[in-house]
Design brief:
This protein is mainly β. It is built from one helix and two strands, in the order αββ.
């Protein structure tokens, strides 16, 4: 709605501007000056002496006018209304309640089962038995008879033999030998030498040694200086050095040598001789004979055993206790509630609107008469 109000206001502004233009002007030229002045009373020409360079013509003038327009706006309106509310009120109650619960009880239950046991039974059975039978049999066998003999046996032994031998051995002997060597003794000789000394003048008028020089000119002077010069003097001295040499020495040395010798001794040894002998020997053999014999067998026989098993049994029990619960009661109340609504209201407002008008300029003093007005320059 506010958008349409704005559009209507713009259209009203354009309408007012067009009406103002239609009342007093058409499209005007800014600089249009006639060449002849006209009198409004007679309508005849006053002459042709108007000064065209005076700048007579039309100009734009902006004025502000009051424009009345109607606008719409929304105004809040507050009204008190009755509103019904539902309220839930909690109410606590204590009610006895009975519940059934189950308990586990251990009960002894008699049971029986069949088991198999191993039982030994004796039965008469024909059994093959091996019985020993002894027989006398002539048997030929060889026996080993030991015979003792004495034999001479030769053996070799190593006998040590000591003899004296002349040997030459070499030993190292260290001798001190005198050696002539040359050494140098250094001495220092003091002498005086004139050494050049470089410097600069301290005055622009007087130079080195009173001579006239320019400012800051270097000059050279000589001063006596003591110089130490080393002088080496050779001299001879005797030094002793150790020199080793090999010396041959002959000496008698005992040498042990081994010689092989053959010796004989009596050795007793045992020699086995085999003899054949015949003899009646009892020989035992086994024969199989069927005999009635008690045989024990293992037999599995069923037996019924009784035993007691503990089982867990569930028993139902009841108990009563008080339970607190909350009950909600519903009630209705009426309240006065302010309700705000928006209502569209129209009102008249006055606005300032800018209006631009094209008006003629005042003529210059050089025109023929003040009553003469320029010819309209509108088209």
């Amino acid at each position: 709605m506010k958008k349409w109000v704005g559009v209507l206001a713009v259209l009203c502004l354009f309408t007012v501007a067009d009406a103002a233009s239609a009342r007093g002007r058409k499209k005007c030229a800014p600089t249009c000056c006639p060449t002849t002045c006209y009198a409004p009373s007679c309508g005849t020409s006053c002459g042709t002496g108007c000064d065209t360079s005076a700048g007579c013509g039309y100009t734009y003038v902006t004025t502000y006018q009051d424009v009345t327009r109607t606008v719409c706006e929304y105004v809040p309106v507050t009204v008190t209304q009755d509103v019904t509310e539902t309220i839930c009120t909690p109410v606590k109650k204590i009610v006895p309640q009975t519940e059934t619960y189950y308990e586990n009880v251990i009960v002894n239950v008699p049971m029986e089962h069949t088991v198999y046991r191993c039982v030994h039974e004796t039965r008469k059975e024909k059994v093959a038995v091996c019985k020993p039978v002894t027989k006398m049999i002539e048997q030929t066998y060889q026996i080993c008879v030991p015979v003792t003999k004495v034999v001479k046996q030769a053996y070799t032994v190593c006998v040590p033999v000591t003899r004296t031998v002349e040997q030459t051995c070499y030993t190292t002997v260290y001798d001190k030998v005198a050696v002539q060597k040359t050494g140098y003794h250094t001495t220092y000789v003091t002498s005086t030498v004139c050494a050049p000394v470089c410097g600069y003048t301290t005055s622009c008028k007087t130079g080195c040694f009173g001579r006239k020089k320019t400012c800051c000119t270097p000059c050279v002077s000589y001063a006596p200086t003591t110089v130490c010069t080393p002088v080496c003097t050779p001299y001879c001295y005797t030094a002793y050095e150790t020199v080793c040499r090999q010396v041959a020495v002959k000496q008698m040395v005992n040498v042990c040598e081994y010689q092989n010798q053959t010796k004989y001794q009596d050795v007793t040894y045992v020699e086995n001789t085999y003899n054949t002998v015949k003899k009646m020997v009892p020989v035992q053999s086994y024969e199989t004979v069927m005999v009635d014999q008690d045989v024990t067998y293992s037999v599995m026989k069923p037996y019924v055993e009784k035993y007691t098993v503990q089982q867990c049994k569930t028993i139902a029990k009841t108990r009563t206790y008080n339970v607190e619960y909350t009950e909600y009661k519903t009630s209705t109340i009426v309240k006065k509630v302010p309700v705000t609504t928006y209502k569209m209201v129209t009102k008249v407002i006055v606005e300032k609107v800018a209006v631009t008008v094209c008006v003629p300029c005042a003529p210059a003093p050089s025109c023929c008469a003040p009553a003469c007005a320029p010819a309209p320059c509108c088209y």
